[in-house]
């Protein structure tokens, strides 16, 4: 049984944003400070990536650990009410993410996932973003390693 009535639950859910979240803003600020320029949420690319670096054909997704089922303590949380619905919803997010990343790869784009929990250590995130954004297409070994560590 839900602890909120339908009106309260609807209000709470309406406040969950999919853009301009705190983790996304932290990544955007960090990337900008590193000297990289980007576009936001390009609708013509699969998955509407959070940050798009068109010249380099690279994109960055900033994922919430809970919503995209990250393997951290925040992503392993299981709701106590309506658990089956939320499990299905979260797994469909994971499947959609995989489809979008595959479609981007087919189109020749490289992608990186930044997890919400990673924004807590900005120095490590800064190094990871710098490696990803500075690597050229000819750095295929590094690019393949970078791609595999994001899945």
Describe the structure.
The chain is of the alpha+beta class. The chain has one domain: VSR Endonuclease (Endonuclease, Chain A, 3-Layer(aba) Sandwich), CATH 3.40.960.10. The protein contains five helices and four strands. The chain has helices spanning 6-14, 22-33, 83-106, 122-134, 140-149; strands spanning 39-40, 51-53, 58-63, 110-115. It has a four-stranded mixed beta sheet, sandwiched between helices. A hairpin with a 4-residue loop joins β2 (51-53) and β3.
Q: Widest sheet: strand order?
A: 1-2-3-4
| Biggest sheet architecture | 4 strands, mixed
CATH superfamily: VSR Endonuclease
Ranges where pLDDT stays below 50 over 5 or more residues in a row are 140-149
| Cα gyration radius (Å) | 17 Å
User: How would you describe the shape?
Assistant: globular
pLDDT average, as an integer? 89
Gap from first CA to last CA: 34 Å
Main attributes?
151 residues, alpha+beta, Endonuclease, Chain A, four-stranded mixed beta sheet, disordered C terminus
Topology overview:
Elements: H1 6-14, H2 22-33, E1 39-40, E2 51-53, E3 58-63, H3 83-106, E4 110-115, H4 122-134, H5 140-149
Parallel strand pairs: 3-4
Antiparallel strand pairs: 1-2, 2-3
Summarize this entry quickly.
This protein has five helices and four strands. It is an alpha+beta fold and 151 residues long. The protein is globular.
């Amino acid at each position: 049984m839900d602890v909120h009535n339908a009106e309260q639950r609807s209000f709470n859910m309406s406040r969950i944003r999919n853009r301009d979240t705190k983790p996304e803003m932290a990544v955007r600020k960090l990337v900008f400070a590193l000297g990289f320029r980007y576009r936001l949420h390009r609708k013509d690319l699969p998955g509407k990536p959070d940050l798009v670096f068109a010249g380099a054909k690279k994109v960055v997704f900033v994922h919430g650990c809970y919503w995209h089922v990250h393997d951290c303590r925040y992503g392993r949380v299981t709701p106590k009410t309506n658990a089956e619905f939320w499990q299905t919803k979260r797994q469909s997010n994971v499947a959609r993410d995989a489809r979008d990343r595959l479609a981007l790869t087919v189109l020749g784009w490289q992608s990186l996932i930044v997890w919400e929990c990673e924004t807590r250590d900005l120095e490590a995130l800064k190094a990871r973003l710098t490696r990803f954004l500075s690597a050229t297409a000819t750095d295929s070994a590094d690019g393949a390693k970078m791609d595999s560590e994001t899945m």
